[in-house]
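Sequence in, structure out.
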Amino acid sequence: MTTQQRKLVNLPSTYHYMQFPREVIIGKGTLKRIPELLKRLNITGAALIIAGKTSYEIAGERVKELLSQSGMSIDTFLVQKVTSREVLMVEKQIKSWRPSVVIAVGGGTKIDAAKLSSFYQNIPFISVPTTLSHDGIASPLASVKGSSKPYSVMAQAPLAIIADIEIIAQSPWPLIISGCGDVISKYTAVKDWWLAHSEKKEYYGEYAASLALMSTKLVTEKASLIKPNNHEGLRLLLEALISCGVAMSIAGSSRPCSGSEHLFSHALDIIDCPHAMHGEQCGVGSILAAYLHKANWKRIKDTLKKIGAPTTAKELGVKSNDIIKALEMAPKIRPERYTILHKLNLNFEEYKKAAEITGIL
Protein backbone atom coordinates (compact mmCIF):
# COMPACT_ATOMS: atom_id res chain seq x y z
CA MET A 1 0.00 0.00 0.00
CA THR A 2 1.36 3.44 -0.96
CA THR A 3 1.79 6.39 1.41
CA GLN A 4 -1.07 8.14 -0.33
CA GLN A 5 -3.38 5.15 0.08
CA ARG A 6 -2.49 4.88 3.78
CA LYS A 7 -3.45 8.50 4.30
CA LEU A 8 -6.90 8.22 2.74
CA VAL A 9 -9.66 8.18 5.33
CA ASN A 10 -11.58 4.90 5.25
CA LEU A 11 -15.19 6.03 4.82
CA PRO A 12 -18.18 4.53 3.02
CA SER A 13 -18.76 5.85 -0.52
CA THR A 14 -21.75 7.87 0.72
CA TYR A 15 -19.41 10.01 2.84
CA HIS A 16 -16.60 12.37 2.02
CA TYR A 17 -13.73 13.80 4.02
CA MET A 18 -13.38 17.52 4.82
CA GLN A 19 -10.11 19.16 5.83
CA PHE A 20 -9.72 22.86 6.66
CA PRO A 21 -6.95 25.26 7.71
CA ARG A 22 -6.82 25.69 11.49
CA GLU A 23 -5.74 29.32 11.34
CA VAL A 24 -5.80 32.07 8.72
CA ILE A 25 -3.99 35.36 9.32
CA ILE A 26 -4.56 38.17 6.80
CA GLY A 27 -3.43 41.80 6.89
CA LYS A 28 -0.56 44.21 6.62
CA GLY A 29 2.72 43.10 8.14
CA THR A 30 1.38 39.68 9.12
CA LEU A 31 4.57 37.85 8.09
CA LYS A 32 6.21 38.71 11.42
CA ARG A 33 3.50 36.70 13.20
CA ILE A 34 4.75 33.37 11.86
CA PRO A 35 6.82 32.41 14.96
CA GLU A 36 3.82 32.85 17.27
CA LEU A 37 1.62 30.98 14.79
CA LEU A 38 3.90 27.93 14.90
CA LYS A 39 4.07 28.18 18.68
CA ARG A 40 0.26 28.11 18.93
CA LEU A 41 0.18 25.12 16.60
CA ASN A 42 2.76 23.41 18.84
CA ILE A 43 5.24 23.03 15.98
CA THR A 44 8.86 22.90 17.09
CA GLY A 45 12.16 21.49 15.85
CA ALA A 46 12.90 21.86 12.15
CA ALA A 47 11.06 23.47 9.23
CA LEU A 48 11.62 23.25 5.48
CA ILE A 49 10.87 26.36 3.42
CA ILE A 50 9.82 25.74 -0.20
CA ALA A 51 10.02 28.80 -2.43
CA GLY A 52 11.06 30.10 -5.81
CA LYS A 53 14.07 32.35 -6.29
CA THR A 54 11.98 35.54 -6.34
CA SER A 55 9.55 34.56 -3.59
CA TYR A 56 12.47 33.59 -1.36
CA GLU A 57 13.99 37.03 -1.80
CA ILE A 58 10.63 38.74 -1.22
CA ALA A 59 9.46 36.77 1.82
CA GLY A 60 11.18 33.40 2.28
CA GLU A 61 14.42 34.86 3.60
CA ARG A 62 12.46 36.88 6.17
CA VAL A 63 10.51 33.76 7.24
CA LYS A 64 13.80 31.90 7.69
CA GLU A 65 15.25 34.74 9.77
CA LEU A 66 12.18 35.01 12.01
CA LEU A 67 11.98 31.27 12.67
CA SER A 68 15.73 30.96 13.23
CA GLN A 69 15.50 33.68 15.85
CA SER A 70 12.71 31.74 17.55
CA GLY A 71 15.02 28.71 17.91
CA MET A 72 13.90 26.53 15.01
CA SER A 73 16.26 24.79 12.61
CA ILE A 74 15.49 25.92 9.08
CA ASP A 75 16.38 24.43 5.71
CA THR A 76 15.34 25.82 2.34
CA PHE A 77 14.64 24.30 -1.06
CA LEU A 78 14.15 26.45 -4.15
CA VAL A 79 12.00 25.10 -6.98
CA GLN A 80 11.79 26.45 -10.51
CA LYS A 81 8.83 24.72 -12.11
CA VAL A 82 6.31 22.48 -10.44
CA THR A 83 6.81 19.16 -12.22
CA SER A 84 6.68 15.57 -11.02
CA ARG A 85 10.48 15.59 -10.92
CA GLU A 86 10.55 18.71 -8.71
CA VAL A 87 8.02 17.19 -6.31
CA LEU A 88 10.16 14.05 -5.99
CA MET A 89 13.20 16.22 -5.26
CA VAL A 90 11.29 18.05 -2.53
CA GLU A 91 10.20 14.70 -1.08
CA LYS A 92 13.82 13.58 -1.02
CA GLN A 93 14.74 16.74 0.89
CA ILE A 94 11.94 16.13 3.37
CA LYS A 95 13.15 12.56 3.98
CA SER A 96 16.69 13.83 4.52
CA TRP A 97 15.88 16.83 6.71
CA ARG A 98 12.87 15.30 8.56
CA PRO A 99 11.17 18.64 9.34
CA SER A 100 8.11 19.04 11.53
CA VAL A 101 6.44 21.26 8.95
CA VAL A 102 6.85 22.45 5.36
CA ILE A 103 6.34 26.16 4.77
CA ALA A 104 5.38 27.12 1.23
CA VAL A 105 6.36 30.69 0.30
CA GLY A 106 5.27 31.83 -3.15
CA GLY A 107 2.46 31.65 -5.67
CA GLY A 108 0.15 28.78 -6.43
CA THR A 109 2.73 26.57 -8.12
CA LYS A 110 5.22 26.68 -5.24
CA ILE A 111 2.41 26.05 -2.79
CA ASP A 112 1.24 23.06 -4.87
CA ALA A 113 4.74 21.56 -4.82
CA ALA A 114 4.89 21.86 -1.03
CA LYS A 115 1.32 20.65 -0.65
CA LEU A 116 1.84 17.45 -2.59
CA SER A 117 5.30 16.54 -1.30
CA SER A 118 4.32 17.15 2.35
CA PHE A 119 1.18 15.08 1.83
CA TYR A 120 3.16 12.13 0.50
CA GLN A 121 5.53 12.40 3.48
CA ASN A 122 2.70 12.71 5.99
CA ILE A 123 3.63 16.08 7.51
CA PRO A 124 1.64 19.35 7.60
CA PHE A 125 2.33 22.40 5.51
CA ILE A 126 1.69 26.12 5.96
CA SER A 127 0.75 28.37 3.06
CA VAL A 128 2.45 31.78 2.80
CA PRO A 129 1.21 33.26 -0.51
CA THR A 130 3.21 36.07 -2.10
CA THR A 131 0.71 36.52 -4.93
CA LEU A 132 -2.90 35.64 -5.78
CA SER A 133 -2.70 33.81 -9.10
CA HIS A 134 -5.20 31.00 -8.31
CA ASP A 135 -7.13 29.26 -5.53
CA GLY A 136 -4.40 26.71 -4.75
CA ILE A 137 -3.28 28.84 -1.79
CA ALA A 138 -6.03 27.36 0.37
CA SER A 139 -7.39 24.28 -1.37
CA PRO A 140 -6.57 20.63 -0.61
CA LEU A 141 -5.87 20.00 -4.32
CA ALA A 142 -2.61 20.32 -6.21
CA SER A 143 -1.79 20.59 -9.90
CA VAL A 144 1.59 19.31 -11.10
CA LYS A 145 2.77 19.41 -14.70
CA GLY A 146 4.27 16.23 -16.09
CA SER A 147 2.05 13.95 -14.04
CA SER A 148 -0.23 11.36 -15.60
CA LYS A 149 -3.21 13.58 -14.82
CA PRO A 150 -3.24 17.07 -16.38
CA TYR A 151 -5.57 18.36 -13.69
CA SER A 152 -5.71 18.77 -9.93
CA VAL A 153 -5.31 15.79 -7.61
CA MET A 154 -6.32 15.53 -3.97
CA ALA A 155 -3.53 16.21 -1.47
CA GLN A 156 -4.10 18.12 1.77
CA ALA A 157 -5.31 21.53 2.91
CA PRO A 158 -2.78 23.83 4.57
CA LEU A 159 -2.61 23.60 8.34
CA ALA A 160 -2.56 27.40 8.36
CA ILE A 161 -2.40 30.38 5.98
CA ILE A 162 -0.54 33.58 6.67
CA ALA A 163 -0.98 36.25 4.00
CA ASP A 164 0.73 39.64 4.11
CA ILE A 165 -1.13 42.13 1.90
CA GLU A 166 1.90 44.42 1.70
CA ILE A 167 3.96 41.60 0.16
CA ILE A 168 1.15 40.49 -2.15
CA ALA A 169 0.77 44.07 -3.41
CA GLN A 170 4.32 43.87 -4.80
CA SER A 171 3.57 40.90 -7.07
CA PRO A 172 3.30 41.36 -10.86
CA TRP A 173 -0.18 42.55 -11.79
CA PRO A 174 -0.84 39.81 -14.41
CA LEU A 175 -0.71 37.28 -11.56
CA ILE A 176 -3.50 39.15 -9.74
CA ILE A 177 -5.53 39.27 -12.95
CA SER A 178 -5.11 35.50 -13.24
CA GLY A 179 -6.49 35.05 -9.73
CA CYS A 180 -9.52 37.16 -10.63
CA GLY A 181 -10.15 35.02 -13.70
CA ASP A 182 -9.97 31.88 -11.59
CA VAL A 183 -12.57 33.21 -9.13
CA ILE A 184 -14.91 34.52 -11.81
CA SER A 185 -14.86 31.14 -13.57
CA LYS A 186 -16.54 29.47 -10.58
CA TYR A 187 -19.84 30.72 -12.03
CA THR A 188 -19.73 28.12 -14.81
CA ALA A 189 -18.04 25.47 -12.65
CA VAL A 190 -21.10 25.44 -10.38
CA LYS A 191 -23.42 25.33 -13.39
CA ASP A 192 -21.57 22.25 -14.64
CA TRP A 193 -21.78 20.68 -11.18
CA TRP A 194 -25.54 21.23 -11.04
CA LEU A 195 -25.87 19.82 -14.57
CA ALA A 196 -24.04 16.65 -13.48
CA HIS A 197 -26.32 16.39 -10.46
CA SER A 198 -29.49 16.90 -12.54
CA GLU A 199 -28.61 14.51 -15.34
CA LYS A 200 -26.17 12.03 -13.80
CA LYS A 201 -27.30 12.05 -10.15
CA GLU A 202 -23.84 13.17 -9.05
CA TYR A 203 -23.50 14.47 -5.49
CA TYR A 204 -24.13 18.23 -5.33
CA GLY A 205 -23.29 20.21 -2.19
CA GLU A 206 -25.43 23.33 -2.04
CA TYR A 207 -23.36 24.94 0.70
CA ALA A 208 -20.07 24.43 -1.15
CA ALA A 209 -21.65 25.67 -4.39
CA SER A 210 -23.07 28.75 -2.66
CA LEU A 211 -19.69 29.59 -1.14
CA ALA A 212 -17.98 29.42 -4.55
CA LEU A 213 -20.74 31.51 -6.14
CA MET A 214 -20.53 34.10 -3.38
CA SER A 215 -16.82 34.54 -4.15
CA THR A 216 -17.63 35.04 -7.84
CA LYS A 217 -20.42 37.48 -7.01
CA LEU A 218 -18.29 39.67 -4.74
CA VAL A 219 -15.32 39.84 -7.14
CA THR A 220 -17.71 40.65 -10.01
CA GLU A 221 -19.52 43.38 -8.06
CA LYS A 222 -16.32 44.89 -6.63
CA ALA A 223 -14.12 44.50 -9.71
CA SER A 224 -13.43 48.26 -9.77
CA LEU A 225 -11.61 47.91 -6.43
CA ILE A 226 -9.15 45.36 -7.78
CA LYS A 227 -6.37 47.55 -9.08
CA PRO A 228 -2.65 48.05 -8.30
CA ASN A 229 -1.85 49.25 -4.77
CA ASN A 230 -5.47 49.02 -3.63
CA HIS A 231 -5.17 46.87 -0.52
CA GLU A 232 -8.93 46.68 -0.07
CA GLY A 233 -9.37 45.08 -3.48
CA LEU A 234 -6.46 42.70 -2.95
CA ARG A 235 -7.87 41.60 0.39
CA LEU A 236 -11.24 40.99 -1.24
CA LEU A 237 -9.62 38.77 -3.88
CA LEU A 238 -7.53 36.97 -1.26
CA GLU A 239 -10.57 36.17 0.85
CA ALA A 240 -12.46 35.02 -2.26
CA LEU A 241 -9.63 32.63 -3.21
CA ILE A 242 -9.50 31.25 0.34
CA SER A 243 -13.29 30.79 0.30
CA CYS A 244 -13.00 28.85 -2.96
CA GLY A 245 -10.40 26.60 -1.35
CA VAL A 246 -12.74 26.00 1.60
CA ALA A 247 -15.60 25.25 -0.82
CA MET A 248 -13.51 22.45 -2.33
CA SER A 249 -12.72 21.10 1.14
CA ILE A 250 -16.43 21.04 1.96
CA ALA A 251 -17.30 19.37 -1.34
CA GLY A 252 -14.52 16.81 -1.00
CA SER A 253 -13.51 17.54 -4.60
CA SER A 254 -12.76 20.41 -6.97
CA ARG A 255 -16.32 20.33 -8.33
CA PRO A 256 -17.52 23.75 -7.02
CA CYS A 257 -14.49 25.45 -8.56
CA SER A 258 -13.57 23.46 -11.65
CA GLY A 259 -15.76 22.63 -14.62
CA SER A 260 -15.68 22.91 -18.40
CA GLU A 261 -13.72 26.17 -18.25
CA HIS A 262 -10.90 24.44 -16.34
CA LEU A 263 -10.90 21.48 -18.73
CA PHE A 264 -10.55 24.01 -21.56
CA SER A 265 -7.52 25.54 -19.80
CA HIS A 266 -5.94 22.11 -19.24
CA ALA A 267 -6.49 21.30 -22.91
CA LEU A 268 -4.68 24.47 -23.98
CA ASP A 269 -1.76 23.40 -21.78
CA ILE A 270 -1.69 19.96 -23.40
CA ILE A 271 -1.77 21.46 -26.90
CA ASP A 272 1.29 23.38 -25.66
CA CYS A 273 0.55 26.43 -27.74
CA PRO A 274 1.89 29.77 -26.45
CA HIS A 275 -0.62 30.23 -23.68
CA ALA A 276 -1.47 32.58 -20.85
CA MET A 277 -1.76 31.85 -17.14
CA HIS A 278 -4.22 29.32 -15.77
CA GLY A 279 -6.72 31.85 -14.39
CA GLU A 280 -6.65 33.91 -17.58
CA GLN A 281 -7.42 30.81 -19.65
CA CYS A 282 -10.19 29.81 -17.26
CA GLY A 283 -11.75 33.26 -17.61
CA VAL A 284 -11.97 32.92 -21.39
CA GLY A 285 -13.18 29.34 -20.98
CA SER A 286 -15.91 30.60 -18.66
CA ILE A 287 -17.19 33.01 -21.31
CA LEU A 288 -17.55 30.08 -23.71
CA ALA A 289 -19.07 27.77 -21.10
CA ALA A 290 -21.61 30.40 -20.03
CA TYR A 291 -22.65 30.86 -23.65
CA LEU A 292 -23.12 27.10 -24.05
CA HIS A 293 -25.15 27.04 -20.82
CA LYS A 294 -27.27 29.90 -22.27
CA ALA A 295 -26.24 31.98 -19.27
CA ASN A 296 -25.05 35.60 -18.97
CA TRP A 297 -21.69 35.29 -20.73
CA LYS A 298 -21.61 39.02 -21.49
CA ARG A 299 -21.36 39.89 -17.80
CA ILE A 300 -18.38 37.58 -17.39
CA LYS A 301 -16.70 39.17 -20.39
CA ASP A 302 -17.42 42.71 -19.16
CA THR A 303 -16.00 41.93 -15.71
CA LEU A 304 -12.83 40.40 -17.17
CA LYS A 305 -12.38 43.48 -19.36
CA LYS A 306 -12.84 45.74 -16.34
CA ILE A 307 -9.91 44.13 -14.51
CA GLY A 308 -7.78 43.99 -17.65
CA ALA A 309 -7.99 40.22 -18.17
CA PRO A 310 -7.83 38.60 -21.63
CA THR A 311 -11.18 37.99 -23.34
CA THR A 312 -10.01 36.96 -26.82
CA ALA A 313 -7.75 34.34 -28.36
CA LYS A 314 -5.40 37.10 -29.49
CA GLU A 315 -5.10 38.50 -25.97
CA LEU A 316 -4.37 35.02 -24.67
CA GLY A 317 -1.70 34.62 -27.34
CA VAL A 318 -3.50 31.57 -28.72
CA LYS A 319 -4.23 30.72 -32.37
CA SER A 320 -7.90 30.54 -33.34
CA ASN A 321 -7.70 26.87 -34.31
CA ASP A 322 -6.13 26.02 -30.94
CA ILE A 323 -9.14 27.50 -29.14
CA ILE A 324 -11.42 25.14 -31.08
CA LYS A 325 -9.06 22.18 -30.64
CA ALA A 326 -9.04 22.80 -26.88
CA LEU A 327 -12.84 22.82 -26.74
CA GLU A 328 -12.92 19.50 -28.61
CA MET A 329 -10.21 17.97 -26.42
CA ALA A 330 -11.52 19.25 -23.06
CA PRO A 331 -14.26 16.65 -22.38
CA LYS A 332 -11.86 13.82 -23.22
CA ILE A 333 -9.44 14.89 -20.46
CA ARG A 334 -11.91 13.85 -17.77
CA PRO A 335 -14.73 11.77 -19.29
CA GLU A 336 -16.11 11.13 -15.80
CA ARG A 337 -16.50 14.86 -14.99
CA TYR A 338 -19.75 15.64 -16.73
CA THR A 339 -20.01 19.23 -18.03
CA ILE A 340 -21.84 21.19 -20.68
CA LEU A 341 -19.11 20.16 -23.15
CA HIS A 342 -19.92 16.48 -22.53
CA LYS A 343 -23.67 17.09 -22.82
CA LEU A 344 -23.57 19.05 -26.10
CA ASN A 345 -20.63 17.19 -27.71
CA LEU A 346 -20.36 19.81 -30.46
CA ASN A 347 -18.21 19.55 -33.57
CA PHE A 348 -15.45 21.87 -34.79
CA GLU A 349 -17.76 24.21 -36.73
CA GLU A 350 -20.24 24.49 -33.85
CA TYR A 351 -17.50 25.38 -31.36
CA LYS A 352 -16.10 27.87 -33.86
CA LYS A 353 -19.50 29.54 -34.12
CA ALA A 354 -19.72 29.80 -30.30
CA ALA A 355 -16.26 31.35 -30.12
CA GLU A 356 -17.15 33.84 -32.88
CA ILE A 357 -20.47 34.86 -31.30
CA THR A 358 -18.76 35.51 -27.94
CA GLY A 359 -16.04 37.55 -29.67
CA ILE A 360 -13.21 35.24 -28.61
CA LEU A 361 -12.27 34.73 -32.26
